[in-house]
TrEMBL record:
Keywords: Signal. It comes from Dawidia soli. The keyword Signal applies. The lineage of its organism: Bacteria, Pseudomonadati, Bacteroidota, Cytophagia, Cytophagales. This is Uncharacterized protein. Residues 1-21 form the signal peptide.
Amino acid sequence: MKKYIRNASLFALALTFAACVDNSLEETPNDDNFPLQLVLDAEEGADLADAEDYGVEIKFADHLPGTSLPATTLTLEYSIEDLDGTMEGAVAVDKVVYEVELDDCTYERELDFTASADGLRGTITIAPDADLGTVPESFEVVFTLPGADDTEGGFTVVFSNLTTTEPVLLGSPRAFAYEVLDNDVAGEWELEIATEEEFEQFKQLFGPVNPGLDALSFEDITGKVTAGFEFEEMKFILELAETEEVTTCEDGASETETENKVIEIEAEYDADDGELEFEGSHPIIGDNGLVEDELDFLAEAEYTQDEAGETLSIRFFSLVDEDNFAEGEELFRDDNGVTFTFEKD
């Protein structure tokens, strides 16, 4: 287990940095002359080895309220480069899609694209949507992947040569790097809380970062907890006994289902050689019941797996935030650790 003094240093550094940074804008752009920027939503990403496709989002960044999106066609070129491992010969653009909201219903539509014979280069045509009257605010370029359990390697896609008659620039980032997500904890895991004692341990650990847990009793939950570890981010989902009707509408078809309500705890994570850290933020609720502040938190744990990789045991040692990190003031601390064992979902 890591020395606890590291936590105090981390938060002291974070607070010092936050106090010194000035994020205010000195000038407000003139919305008549300030060009829109088309950018990638992220610079890198990853998915499990057996993933069959992956979407890269491109969007108009931070356009000012009242500023119209282009009503004429744009084109954008792409090239798939640096293919490594089993990605060679398997990666190409499958489709380019965007969503339109009409009358409380979501419609998925496609943009045209042309590709070279080897599929590694091409041009995307970003045309105005008939219902929107403009081009979409964002769209997703979906790439095919090998989809095998033994997939390895990665690739980079570079976007360039934006052609338009409108005041639109191709901003940064312009390249996206993909790799197989191969850390030990990646994927979906499930925990069954079977006793009231186990639930009290869960509340003791996570209650400080989710106020909704404090009001729950063992009878209020089904016992199911899922942990999903994706690229750099993860989520714990506690399923409640209470249900609700959820109505969705996609491509004109409406569907209503009864689902269990849930409580979610989200965090960024780092898993390395048996050590596991979670970093996130949690709300501070005032006397009036409203959120009055938000604080960053850090949880430290260790993890082990069985030889088959079918179980994941996480032993939590400490939970601190910006206001509670000194020894004796932690939100949670147990030198022996509290362990929860998840099974592969």
